[in-house]
Automatic annotation (TrEMBL):
InterPro entries the UniProt entry points to: SGNH_hydro, SGNH_hydro_sf
SUPFAM superfamilies listed in its UniProt record: SGNH hydrolase
One protein family per Pfam: Lipase_GDSL_2
Descriptive protein name: SGNH hydrolase-type esterase domain-containing protein
Residues of the SGNH hydrolase-type esterase domain: 374-503
Domain of life: Bacteria
Coiled coil start-end: none
Amino acid sequence: MPDTDQVVERGTCRVVCDRQLPWQVKVVPGTIRLADGRSFTIAEETSLPVRPGGSRAYRNQRYAMTGESGQSPCFWNGEDIRGSGGMPYQRMVPDTFRVYDESRSVLYRPEEDYSFDYYWGTIKRHPRGRIADGQMLLLDYDVWLCRYDSIVLREDGRIVVVEGLTEAPESRELLLPDPPAVQGGVVLANVFTGWGEQSLYDGGAGIAPKELSEGQDAAPLPALSGRYLDATPRTYEVEVIAYSPDDRSVMLLMASSGTDYGRERSLDEESLRWTTPITASLDKPVPLVTLSAYGHTVDWGLSLDFRTVPPESLKEGASYRISADPHSVMNFPHPKEEALAAIPVLNREALEPFRRKLLEGNPVRIAFYGESTTRSGRWPYQLIRALRHGCPASMIYSSNVAIGGENSARGLLRYEHEVKSVNPDLVILEYMLNDSGLGAGAEPAIRSILERLRQDGIPCLIVTNNGMNPLFCGSMRQVEDAHELYRRLAAEFECAFVGGFAYFQRLHEFGVYYVTELKGNMVNHPYGNVDPDWGRFDQVLGEAVVKAVAP
């Protein structure tokens, strides 16, 4: 039976959630046509159970207290190995966390001796508590597990569930597994269980007026757009508190029910946390946000567009309710072999001077100039190995001058002493992630770097990498803006460009929920913290960089 890369027509066949049974999916009948001309018809609806992700207990985990916070949830605490002797695993089951001294004779009290964060798997000492900085502790806790299952059509016509793993190949990594490697059959869908969810969901979102009196006609509603990026369902409340037709602006309050990350409690209508007033233009979509327990707003990808509402229908006091469900089922995932084609590789000819040196057998040096995903990622040395293999007559050197946490404004200050000074024959520039938080300061900084490279006659390849977890950065839109900025400046300065972020945005088309691809920290590192070769995204990005650079 050919695999999914040979499926050319899917018809009506798809996998959907069973609305009657929370952990069951149904395969809708239809005909699948393969590239070789063969067809397979699913004549009857098939129901298949999917096991919840479940949980796992960890006991007597040794942990040296790191960090201090006077309140919970206490947010992310950096990255390290996970498990006993390292940091706790992420996505803790609420109220299972117990903290003891090393002899287990003292049980410490939450909010008095320590602060915690169930989402990030964090514990920090309370400034007025009994735990000293660096003190060795014993931790007991449970964590939610997630898993991918594949719905597979076998050659004999059977439809089966191929269950995936719940952990990484390396036990000290985060519990962010990959979909199963299916041998023989067509993968109709990947199903992602999420963490501690009560059900599987088909995804999507809907909007309705919050209140409508009997006999009252419904006013036109704002249009809802975007893909919902969270892994848990939410109901948003939006209230119009001011409207200015003169400058076409609106002032809104927003809140949402659903899981309150960090404490992992469920917010309802009585406990909603409202944003401060948000002033927005009516001439473009308004991001739908929720106020997190950390004090910053989080945008999970949806937008309201008030351009569909006539001015006379938009009034102060209008209120809307938006329901959003996660996408548990990802139908007909593209095969991994197609991932490279999802990354734009542009203006490759800009690197011809570098390639000529390589082909002539001259020694060359590549400077990697950027932040942590360049400093510790897999892709830079994937490139170096490929060039050494393909051009054995040339000595190929590297200078990785990237610094974790740095943006282009700070990197610009190092150009003369740490980049130009190594006499590179090629500079690979990658600051997108951290520049996404730099705002208007990013463009002038990148422009200055590119102007200096042009003045010094150094070819440049601009790379954009993966996205981020919105719970950490606030919004994926800022990352997308930085990606588009880099693409535009690459064209303007005639640099080569590799747009890895374009692939990251489409991970769901490859059957992957993007957070599980952030292997190192669940924030922004798409490679293992212990095993840097773990993680499909960085491998594909490396292949695209090789495609851009190699002769």
